[in-house]
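Example record

One chain of 140 residues, shown exactly as stored in the release files.
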Amino acid sequence: MVDECQQYIKKKRSWLGRPNVEAEPQGGRGIHTDSGDAGVMDTKQWERFIGIAESGIEVMKQCLAPLTKISGYWGIEEVRHYQWASTGWKFCKTLGTAASRIPNWEEASVKLNQLLLNRITNGQSLRPLSTYQIRRLGTT
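Predicted structure tokens for this chain:
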């Protein structure tokens, strides 16, 4: 049987509103409660958690090829530093195309910074660049 993650056990306690209840490893027993609703709630939360994890895995699989391309051009350090793995498939794909157009990181970083500077001088926020702006990277 799979051992429950300690973080999940803590979260389960908070769902049930009983932080001092001792959780037991999975195996049919779970947390002892007086209500049958707690088991249903636990099951729904667990199914939601699994659904989110599975969709996250799919996104990471889709991002793998573009991120590999980007790291080949600009280096794995930049991919990690800017946390591009968490930006989504569309952004990764667009950034991979930009990396192939401007394979030199020094040149690309100057152009990326110019895009950010343009946003600031136009009164826009300093939020991450959009896919539209990344598409423009290869044309500027």
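Notes: The chain has six helices and no strands.
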